[in-house]
Design a protein that fits this description.
This protein is mainly alpha-helical. The protein has one domain. It contains seven helices and two strands; from the N terminus they run ααααααββα. A two-stranded antiparallel ribbon has the order 1-2. A hairpin with a 5-residue loop joins strand 1 and strand 2. The protein is globular and about 40 Å long. The N and C termini lie far apart (43 Å).
């Protein structure tokens, strides 16, 4: 069996000893990405490998990641603000804070978007969320 570059990259990331994300979660993300039949347009393989791959994760990847799949923090903060997610209290001084902001903000955003049934963009435009996705995350 030939190891694809992404699989090698994922295995290396999973093996990192000093990472905020537990190895089990990294392995889940890599397996989800490998199982996807078709990559959504506008989303890099790298972005898919480190996310859940659900509707919101794909929307966020399209909106808050640059061409190299790096997070653009001001865009993420504007998106969180537009949807009413408080984010000012998150630590922004320690190593890995951008990833924690993305993950913690994303979790808070998930519930709000599911309940509102739409993702509000910083310019006020709304992207309707699929009903099946909302049903899974509504509280």
């Amino acid at each position: 069996m030939t190891i694809l570059p992404l699989e090698a990259e994922a295995e290396a990331a999973i093996a990192l000893p000093r990472s905020v994300v537990q190895s089990g979660y990294k392995a889940k993300y890599a397996a989800r990405e490998a199982a996807m039949q078709r990559r959504p347009k506008g989303v890099s393989r790298k972005a898919l490998a480190r996310s859940t791959g659900d509707w919101l994760a794909i929307q966020l990847a399209k909106i808050v990641l640059d061409d190299k799949a790096k997070i653009v923090v001001p865009v993420l903060e504007a998106l969180l603000t537009a949807n009413g997610v408080k984010h000012e209290h998150y630590n922004r001084t320690t190593k890995g804070w951008q990833g924690r902001l993305r993950m913690s903000g994303g979790l808070a955003l998930r519930t709000i978007v599911a309940n509102e049934e739409a993702l509000v963009l910083p310019d006020g435009e709304r992207i309707d969320a699929p009903a099946s996705w909302c049903a899974k995350y509504q509280r």
